[in-house]
Amino acid sequence: xxxxxxxxxxxxxxxxxxxxxxxxxxxxxxxxxxxxxxxxxxxxxxxxxxxxxxxxxxxxxxxxxxxxxxxxxxxxxxxxxxxxxxxxxxxxxxxxxxxxxxxxxxxxxxxxxxxxxxxxxxxxxxxxxxxxxxxxxxxxxxxxxxxxxxxxxxxxxxxxxxxxxxxxxxxxxxxxxxxxxxxxxxxxxxxxxxxxxxxxxxxxxxxxxxxxxxxxxxxxxxxxxxxxxxxxxxxxxxxxxxxxxxxxxxxxxxxxxxxxxxxxxxxxxxxxxxxxxxxxxxxxxxxxxxxxxxxxxxxxxxxxxxxxxxxxxxxxxxxxxxxxxxxxxxxxxxxxxxxxxxxxxxxxxxxxxxxxxxxxxxxxxxxxxxxxxxxxxxxxxxxxxxxxxxxxxxxxxxxxxxxxxxxxxxxxxxxxxxxxxxxxxxxxxxxxxxxxxxxxxxxxxxxxxxxxxxxxxxxxxxxxxxxx
Length: 468
Ligand code: P61
Known about the structure:
Blueprint: H1 21-30, E1 45-46, H2 58-64, H3 75-88, E2 92-96, H4 99-110, E3 116-119, H5 124-132, E4 136-139, H6 160-170, E5 178-181, H7 194-207, E6 211-214, H8 218-228, H9 237-246, E7 250-254, E8 265-269, H10 272-285, H11 296-308, H12 312-331, E9 344-348, H13 349-352, H14 362-374, E10 376-377, E11 379-381, H15 383-386, E12 388-389, E13 396-397, E14 403-407, H16 415-430, E15 438-442, E16 453-456
Parallel strand pairs: 1-10, 3-4, 5-6, 6-7
Antiparallel strand pairs: 2-8, 7-8, 9-14, 11-14, 12-13, 15-16
Helix pairs in contact: 1-14, 2-11, 3-11, 4-5, 4-10, 8-9, 12-16, 14-16
The chain binds ligand P61.
């Protein structure tokens, strides 16, 4: 057997509504070919994101009934604080309603205009929050990350030479901290090695620059370390996580990923002064420091989720299910980003649709075709999400990678449903030349992918309507 079966039984089910190809075609036109604008009950298999879409365990649901909804000092906060400290090891635990609020509080507190924050690759909310403070968000991942065919095992690694050159160029005082995103979502859900983290720390120590983690998918990153890095095969997951975080000074966390909850996040750090300022701001914009915009029951579910996510059986299934999908596609010649990531399979849209130039959004065109023909929703991570206008020429600068991410929600879909996804994509690949490009008709000034609207450049061809 090449993948582990589900290490859980299903106790509650949510029906999936069937749609026809014609219905989806109409929905797409109404949505301006933007899949964020399509109602979720018209999607058969929703791989838009692994964020906030996990199925909670019976133990988490039981914890919800133990929610202590006191305004101050809820016992669920103390449970969360103890759990976060035991895994991450930082002194202060500041709950937020999701990851970007942790980023916003951190960056609005520590960044001054003109500063620079290096990261392996900033996720879009991190980048937007850094730039919102009029600072530079710099991506310094190793060059292998930009080659979708290279199967280096730790493609999320920081390029230490470029990091040191940046410190010399910008000056230590203009770098309030360095971030490492684990796993590196925008680069294909790729892990960062313990060795690279250790070396980054050693380099930053020389310049007295703090190191923070964007820790959304820390458990998946730790599982890859166990699988791939010499010396870790027999080390328990919790020990690996503790070692990893011991090299940092703090982290931001969207618990909607490896917290196994539908809403929640936190910021955890050692610095007393930063923590104090952040807490004051938290009270202004989120809520008191023992709930941070969440209900007591949400804090309890998050504490329990963080305990469960490091279970090895769970992680073996989780990483195995994503790998199973990737391998089915790869064996049939469908171009995917290698190696297969932790939370998602990334279709390489440049190779999938070589006849569509990047200026016609091949990633978005592929995501649209996958939904129209099979009811499967992925998300474009390419020109739409990361394309930028050159400030002087007004020309669009295209990102190196043009992908459609198929993010797998945690504990939600069975291996049979994943097989259906693979078969659909293989069929779509065989008729790929029927897919046409798109043109933008509306874009917002920031995070444009959520609300952008398109028209199809040729009359849409309904390729393979799924019957009702
Ligand atoms: C995702 F299209 N990720 O991958 P929040 N850091 C990292 C993330 O992956 C991340 C956040 C911070 C999402 C949700 C998402 O434009 C989009 O709890 C590495 O979502 O605030 C979120 O955490 C932010 C999808 C977010 C998007 C923004 O699907």
